[in-house]
Amino acid sequence: MKIPLPSRVIKICGLREYSHFQEATAAGADLLGMVFVSGVRRKVEPETAQEIVSRLKRGFCTSSLLKQQNPSFVGLFCDQPSSEVNRIVESVGLDWVQLCGEESVDYWKSIESPIFKVLHVPPVEGNSVLSRRATLESLESSIYEVERNGVLAILDRSSEHQPGGTGRQFDWTIAQELSDNHHRFLLAGGLTPTNLKNAIETVVPFGVDVSSGVETNQIKDPEKIREFVQIARDTFSYVRIDES
């Protein structure tokens, strides 16, 4: 099953509070992400998520704040049993699953929802040309596998401590080369309202994904959410995206 996405996708992730979901929706985000990974600061319990999603969906038809089509809901998981993932998807009412671990292609096929697969980009050791080339070739091989299986990639900075949401950038020129080679992906990792315009102009990604970059003191900041979405929309309006 596939859910069509517009190009120039904007995803706000790590949402936990109902009011923050409302702010992201009103701002015009396409995707609203929530975390179901144990031990992660932004984790939300499935029962809480189900209540939030249900309330939001009831309000979509009547909300005067909605600027565009209804956003879709994304659940983040990391190396969890597929039965658990499918159960949470069904109970919460999620539209997409985002896999942030080492899940295999066979695992992807057991998931009963459209998938985003996070590809973690390591730092280039010592700015070495050979190291950079090896990183790029490995990523391109991974993204080809993702695409062959009807999955959409998210490029994020690798971390030994958590599967995403670190607020740290990677080398955007690597993502730029993948974009130049006609690969579609969401760009994540250290994006903020301050650097977003440059990131989109440099990489020209299919979409962008933010979590910590729209927080103040580790809490989602409505003003930063609105600013992030507006800058993304404004910048995407004039960059040329490969939609082939």
Structure, described:
There is one protein chain. With 244 residues, the protein is of the alpha/beta class. Helix content is 38%, strand content 18%. The strands form two sheets. The protein has an eight-stranded parallel beta barrel. The chain has a two-stranded antiparallel ribbon with strand order 9-10. Helix 5 (129-148) links the parallel strand 5 (115-121) and strand 6. Helix 1 (18-27) packs parallel to helix 8, helix 5 (129-148) packs across helix 6 and helix 7 (196-203) packs parallel to helix 8. The protein is globular, with a radius of gyration of 17 Å. The mean pLDDT is 90.
Features of the shown structure:
alpha/beta; 8-stranded parallel β-barrel; 8 helices; 244 residues
Q: How does the SSE layout of this entry go?
A:
Elements: E1 9-12, H1 18-27, E2 31-35, H2 46-60, E3 72-77, H3 82-92, E4 96-99, H4 105-109, E5 115-121, H5 129-148, E6 152-157, H6 172-180, E7 185-187, H7 196-203, E8 207-210, E9 215-216, E10 219-220, H8 222-236
Parallel strand pairs: 1-2, 1-8, 2-3, 3-4, 4-5, 5-6, 6-7, 7-8
Antiparallel strand pairs: 9-10
Short description:
This protein is of the alpha/beta class and 244 residues long. Helices cover 38% and strands 18% of the residues.
pLDDT averaged residue by residue? 90
- Strand adjacency order, main sheet: 1-2-3-4-5-6-7-8
Tell me the strand percentage band: 15-25%
* Spans where pLDDT lies below 50 across 5 or more residues: none
Largest sheet: 8 strands, parallel, barrel
Output the number of helix runs. 8
Distance between the termini: 20 Å
Order of helices and strands: EHEHEHEHEHEHEHEEEH
Count of DSSP E strands?
10
Class of secondary structure makeup: alpha/beta
